[in-house]
């Protein structure tokens, strides 16, 4: 406790915000895995499961759009605490008897959870801008990467936790344990979080919820396609494919996806080192900049890192489509070889995709905080994460529908196309010299 007291006020607030974000993320990841596995176990089809998350993603779009405005007017401490409280309520809604756990009721609970998640996320990302000095872009990149990476690592742990809790405590027992834990975190946050965090000096008008910045609009559009590219094959199609085609048990599916998310979070945390957070000036326009201050990545880096990501799902789709059984002696058990090829393709391909996606995601997360206005930062960040939520919504619905109609390979090709579109949009993002 003495060591914590010696820290600066900004660092203490960052720790509280991160702790809130971590706790929320654990329950969010676990809840998603619980719903997917529990309802698949009940016999729901892939598209039906995707529709359970429809309101979760839809209300995330609405929440980010209006939540940024509320954060600028009320303060980010209030929006974060409201998000925690709403998640407790959403979890409690799923404690009704199994006979009352209808699709409509689950969708309503997921809608509330979607609002809660994006209030929490928007508040956490916006708060960093208020805690880092204006001229410390390199530090800002590292802080954003650390928060984003650690959050996704905990989300992976939540996936694993959801699978384990479902096996040990069953559905309602798992939900109850998470609701109690998050309620305790909410009480602590009410006491410890700074009251005026992120509140705009000039109260923004309601019409200002839409960004007027070309850079933020372009980055938001790129983010929409980036996250649509991930969710179109990862959210529903992949776990159902692993369970139905490979015959993996639920706990194996949960553990595998959890491991991927955890490693993905680690890569995000170290993204500044992987990208290289310094760029050597090579033009006269850099001459006015102090040589002692490194430059963080800009829009050009977003374009360059999106290109290899677009190749990853395309290569996976090509390999999965190869038929090695033709012309092969049946004694070699060609069906088993085909099965093993598919498994290794998914495992290795998902690892490569995860590394590249983590770098792209971390880079985008830094750029939005960097581009955002200093006063009322949550307005710009909220608009950006509205696009992020819309991309997840599109990806989630397509993940269930396309997989059910055409299979995983079709989902992968759409993923590749979406990333390519994000790369093309990123060409318009400003460089350091333009800014």
Instruction: Compute the average pLDDT.
Output: 79
Q: According to CATH, what is the topology?
A: Growth Hormone, Chain: A
Question: Mind telling me which CATH architecture this is?
Answer: Up-down Bundle
Counting structural domains, the number is 1
What Rg do the Cα atoms give? 22 Å
The major sheet is characterized as: none
Structural class of the secondary elements?
Answer: mainly alpha
CATH class: Mainly Alpha
Q: Helix and strand succession? A: HHHHHHHHHHHHHHHH
List the uncertain runs: 277-294
Approximately what portion of the residues adopt beta-strand conformation?
Answer: under 5%
Instruction: Name the shape in a single word.
Output: globular
- The span between the termini is 43 Å
The overall strand count is: 0
